User: Fold this.
Amino acid sequence: MKPRPLLAIGIGGIVVGSLLPFVWFLITSLKSQGEIEAVPPTWWPSGGFEFYRSALIEHHLLDYVVNSLIVAGGTTLLALLVGTPAAYALARLRLPGKRWLMGGLLCISMFPQIAIAGPVWQILNVLGGLNTHWGLVLPYVTLTLPLAIWILASFFAELPVELEEAAQIDGCSPWTAMWRIMLPLATPGIFTAAILVFIYAWNEFFFALLILTQPEKQTLPVGIALFQGEFTMPWGELAAASVLATLPLVLLVILFQRWIVSGLSAGAVKG
Assistant:
């Protein structure tokens, strides 16, 4: 295949353009206050870590990290517990209108958040879920469950039915066959769904701002957005906190990149 320099340049430009805001925030987090306010702006930082210390200690960033871990972890666990058997049933049972059902699931995951914000707030107010972590986990599971089911159902559909039939001939019930045979084979798809659900819950801002108004309950995106400076906007602390909040997700994607691509492309090619 002939090299395509224009295509390579275009891809490289898109990658650099996408990474530029993060690189700029990384540079800003390592500057001094004078370098941040300099006109024209300076590119090379002095290399200090004062803003990281301020974000972690004075702005209590670790408290927001713990809250985000609770919410994102709870959302991921609950979405997989509900989504895995639902996806398995959709992939294996002969249901009328299955294609429409899968399309409907994908449409539901694309609903704009503002369209359901009012009903969600009213329901949580009645249930006593405002300013609680479980009150934030419930709408997150509702919003991420369709995507998790879609990914897992596509992955289950690619697994050979003969393995399941052989297990049932050996005496396994459908649930036992799913638990002992199919789930281990579907591990890449489960990891893919888990990582995407976790990233969504980790980054989500709108519902976290709407439901969690008490500072001690707030998650990372809301906590960082509400950083208060004494006289000016604390850009250095904001940059340092944003870098610390982004690094775990970058490491997750780098470590599980192959599984994420495999899970997202499941069902895309038919033999």
